[in-house]
Amino acid sequence: MAIFGLIEYEQASPEVRAIYDDIMATRKVDWVGNFWKAIAHDPATLKRTWESIKQVMAPGAIDAVTKEMIYVAVSVTSQCEYCIASHTASARNKGLTDAQLKELMAVVGMASETNKLVKGYQVEMDERFKTP
Amino acid sequence: MAIFGLIEYEQASPEVRAIYDDIMATRKVDWVGNFWKAIAHDPATLKRTWESIKQVMAPGAIDAVTKEMIYVAVSVTSQCEYCIASHTASARNKGLTDAQLKELMAVVGMASETNKLVKGYQVEMDERFKTP
Amino acid sequence: MAIFGLIEYEQASPEVRAIYDDIMATRKVDWVGNFWKAIAHDPATLKRTWESIKQVMAPGAIDAVTKEMIYVAVSVTSQCEYCIASHTASARNKGLTDAQLKELMAVVGMASETNKLVKGYQVEMDERFKTP
Amino acid sequence: MAIFGLIEYEQASPEVRAIYDDIMATRKVDWVGNFWKAIAHDPATLKRTWESIKQVMAPGAIDAVTKEMIYVAVSVTSQCEYCIASHTASARNKGLTDAQLKELMAVVGMASETNKLVKGYQVEMDERFKTP
Amino acid sequence: MAIFGLIEYEQASPEVRAIYDDIMATRKVDWVGNFWKAIAHDPATLKRTWESIKQVMAPGAIDAVTKEMIYVAVSVTSQCEYCIASHTASARNKGLTDAQLKELMAVVGMASETNKLVKGYQVEMDERFKTP
Amino acid sequence: MAIFGLIEYEQASPEVRAIYDDIMATRKVDWVGNFWKAIAHDPATLKRTWESIKQVMAPGAIDAVTKEMIYVAVSVTSQCEYCIASHTASARNKGLTDAQLKELMAVVGMASETNKLVKGYQVEMDERFKTP
What we know:
The structure is a homohexamer.
Chain A: H1 14-27, H2 34-39, H3 43-57, H4 64-77, H5 81-93, H6 98-120
Helix pairs in contact in A: 1-3, 4-5, 4-6
C-alpha cells in the first residue's frame, strides 16, 4: 500500500477534490488513478505535478499518443512497473495499436543495447554530432 | 578514444565494408558513425547489431521520426551522451522539428519525475491497470 | 523468497549471531531485517556490510535522520522497493516527520526531472562549477 | 555545447529575462547557470521548471542545505555530472561543510551497494515494512 | 500478467513453435520461460532476440557459466527481478556454485558503490586509462 | 578535476600513505589511480573502501579476471566512464583477451535489451524461478 494510504474522492479536501475533478474532466474519465490518490497527501505536490503533466502531455507539436509512447519508453528504461502499466493503458486508450506497442518495445530494447555498447567500447563523439 | 580504436572504411575487411556499405545505402549518407567503426572490431556484433537496428528502426506501425524520438528518450533516461547526440541528429535529419524536440525533452523530464514519486510513495497498482 | 532463504537467529552460527546481536544493540531493537538474514549466508559479506553501514550511518557531521533521507533518495532513484520501504521506516523511527518525507519525495522527483533535461539539452558545464 | 546553444541575458526575451531576474533575486547572485540558459529556448519549460524548483527547494520542513544534499544524492545515483557539480557548488554556498560532503558521498555509496545486494539476493519485504 | 498474455506451445503458430523448439533443443530442456511466451506476440522480436541471445550466450572466448554471471550482474544493476531470478537459475543449472553466486553479488555490490564514489568525487580519468 | 583535488603520495599523511603502499603491494604496481587519490581526502572512506575491494576482488570461488569482467559489466550498466576505463585496463592487465572483452560487451548489451523487454511486456515470474 502507498506509504500514507490513498485519499479517495469522498475523503478529499475541497482543494484536492478540485484537482481530481480537473483530472477527470481533462481525461474524460470518471476515476482517478492511485498515483494521484497517493500524492494527494501533499496537496502542493499534487497540484504542481498535475499542472505540469497537464501542460506537458497536452497535444502540441507532438500528438498525445506519441507523448504516451515516450512516457512508456522512459518508464521501461527506469524500470517503474506502475508507470509502465498505467501509461501503456493510457496510450492504448488514446489509440495506440498492438502493432505500435510491440514496435515501441523493440525500439526501447535496441536502444538499451546500443547505449551499453557505446559506453563499453568507450566510443568518442563524432565531430558531426557536436552542436556548434 | 574507443577501446580498440576506429576501423575506417579503407582499413576494413570485405565483411565489415559490406556492412558499412549497407549502413550508408540504407541511410542515404556517405559516412558511418564512430559507433559502427568502434564495434567493427567484433564483426559478429557489428553484423548482428546493424541487422537488428535496421529491422527495428525501419518505419512500420510507427514512423521513422517517432522511432528516433523513442530512441532519444531511452538514451536520455540511461544517460548515454553519445547516443543522445547521435540520435537527436538522426531525428532532426528525418524531420524532427525544434518544437518537437523541446516537447520530447519536457515529456522525458516529467516522466522521470513521476517515476520516482511512484516509487517513493510506494504506490500500488490500480486493479484496472493489471492485465487480465 | 530470498535466493538462499533467511537465516533466523536460532539457526545462526555464533559468528552470524554476534553480528545480529550487534545490529540489535546498535539500533536498540529486538529484531533483524530480512536483508541481514538473507546475506547471512555469506558471513564475510554480512560482516563487511554491517560494519560499513554501522560506520557510515552513525551520526557525524550529518545527523542520523538526514543520513536516512539520503539513503531513501538513493533507493528511490535506483528503484529498490525493499530499500525504500525499510529505510523510510528507519527514517521515521529516527524522527522523520510526514512533512519532511513529503518534501524529500518532492526534491527527489524534481532532481530526477532536471537530471534528464540537462542530458537531453546537452548542457555543458559552467566554468564556475569546475573544480580548480 | 547545448543543443540549441545558450541564451544570454542580453539576447533574452522579456519573458525569459523576467525568469532570469527571479532566479538571481531568489538566489541572491548576479549570474544564471547554463542549465537555465539552455532550456530558455523553451520558455514554457523554463518557467515551469524554475517555478517548481523554487517551490520545492525553498526551506520548509527540510532546510535548504539538506535539500541540496538530497539533490546531489539523486544526481550521483543517476550519474548526471553537470547536476552533481552544480548542486555540490550550491550546497557548499549554502553552508555544506567538507566533512558533510564526504559523509554524503559515503552514504550514497553504501546505499548503492546495499540496493544491489537486496535485488541480487532477492530479499522479500519484511511484514513490518509493509504500509498498513 | 504479461501485457498480451502468454502464448503456450499448443496455441503457437508454426513460426513461433519452431523457435520454441530451438530454444528447448539448444538448452536441452522441455519448457520455455514466460519471457519467450510473452514476446512471442511479436514473432519478429521473438526470432531476432532468440537468435541474438543464442549467438551471444554460446560459449566462446568466455564460458557459458561466466556469461550467465555477467548477465546476472547487468540485471541486478538495472534492477530487473525477473531477469535476476531466471538467469540466476540458468547459471546454477550450468554449474554456478553457491560460493560463486555469493562472490558475484559481493562484486556487484562493491562495483555499484565505487561507481557512485567516482561520480560524487568527480574523479578525472588517469592518463594511463585513456585509450591511445 | 576531483572535487577536493588529488592527494599525491608525497603529500599524504602516514595513514593514507600506508593504504597507498598496500594498494601498490597488493596490485604489484608502482602507482595509485586517481580514484584513491580523490577519496583519500576522507581517510575513513579510503580505508574502508580499499579493505572491502581488496577482500571482494581477491580470487576465491571466482578468479580475478572474471571478477574484473563483472566489475566492468556493472560499470557499463550504470554508465560510469571512469570505472569502465579503469577496470577494463585492470582486466586486461590480469589477462583478459580482446576476444573476451568483445564477448563481454556483447553479453552486457543483450542483457540490457532483454531487461527492458521483460519490463515492457510486464512478464510475470515463472513458478520455477521462484525460490522455495
